[in-house]
Amino acid sequence: KKILLIDDDQDILDLLVNFFKTRGSEVTTFVSAEDALKKIKESPSEIYDVILTDLQLPKMNGIDFTIAAKQHKVETPIIVMTVTRSAEIAMRAIRNGAYDFIVKPIHFPQLQVSVERAFHLNHLRQDVSSLRSLVKGQGNVTSPHDGL
After folding, report:
1. Tens digits of residue pLDDT in 76-135
2. Using CB atoms within 10 A as the burial measure, which of 47, 69, 128, 136 is most buried?
3. pLDDT digits over 19-63, tens only?
């Protein structure tokens, strides 16, 4: 399970990397949304199972990152993290494509549930995509009963 993590607070990055690595995940970190977005654009074949981003980042905030990622056809679930407990900001994040919204200080059991749900959603999306490809491919296959 691959996680892309964006936060400008190195202590939070270290804490989250340790949390996820001890649970068997591979974690890629960025301290800016711009650098993460650049990586996503330059390496579209690099697939992440979930993206976690802080809301408050120096230049591009987490919601703007989410919008930009969705414009680049990123279907990976994005979880926005913030110290703000505002329902309005949470709804804005969700309306703009975020999968979930986590309030800091991080409650790790809640984070784990959110991430596991995102992993599951991503897995289901991949299955649906594979099935669609399979069905499209079979549309060109002739049946032994064709012509009878």
Report:
1. 999 999 998 888 999 999 999 999 999 999 999 999 999 999 999 888 888 888 888 888
2. 69
3. 999 999 999 999 999 999 999 999 888 889 999 999 999 999 999
Distances (CA, A) of 128 to 32, 116, 123, 135: 32, 18, 9, 10
Task: Kindly list the distances between the CA atom of residue 45 and the CA atoms of 22, 109, 130, in Å, as whole numbers in the listed order.
Answer: 26, 31, 16
**Cα–Cα distance, 13 to 15 (Å, whole number):** 5
Packing angle of the helix pair 62-71, 87-95 (nearest 10 deg): 10
Nearest in space to 113 (alpha carbons), one of 26, 29, 50, 22: 50
